[in-house]
Amino acid sequence: MAFSALAIVLVITQYLIFVLLTARARVRYSIKAPATVGHPVFERTYRVQMNTLELLIIVVPGIWLTGLFVDPYWLSPLLGVLFAVARLIYCVTYIRNPTSRGFGVAMSFLVAGLFIVCSAYGAIAEILYSLNH
């Protein structure tokens, strides 16, 4: 599970970086808290942070459950890294030009969906195995 744990550390560290990017944009564009609107670049940076947060509720347990029930050495960490790559692509493209964010969004949702499928599959397989033994 150590590799899965490292994947979780990766995605939450990336999220912390997105928080810091938002804070930097808040200062750069003079957006006083608690405002979340103002300069378009700040708004896009803030949306990257919040949209990533919305997916972490699926991805962090997904990394853990996929590692626990399916594969803690390759599949779970690999999907975690793919999610981080997808969010990086999303971050760069959305802040630069929101209309170009599609690939990062699609890849993020694909990985999140795979975590749901893998977690459910692994848990159901574990239940069925325990019922038969």
TrEMBL record:
Keyword field contains ATP-binding: no
- Give the matching Gene3D superfamilies: Membrane associated eicosanoid/glutathione metabolism-like domain (1.20.120.550)
Give the location in the cell: Membrane
Q: What is the lineage of its organism?
A: Bacteria, Pseudomonadati, Pseudomonadota, Gammaproteobacteria, Cellvibrionales
Show the SUPFAM superfamilies listed in the entry: MAPEG domain-like
Q: According to Swiss-Prot or TrEMBL, what is its membrane topology? A: Multi-pass membrane protein
Q: Tell me which InterPro entries the record gives.
A: MAPEG (IPR050997), MAPEG-like_dom_sf (IPR023352), Membr-assoc_MAPEG (IPR001129)
According to the UniProt entry, where is the signal peptide?
Answer: none
Keyword line: Membrane, Transmembrane, Transmembrane helix
Q: What is this protein called?
A: MAPEG family protein
Q: Looking at the keywords, is Transmembrane present?
A: yes
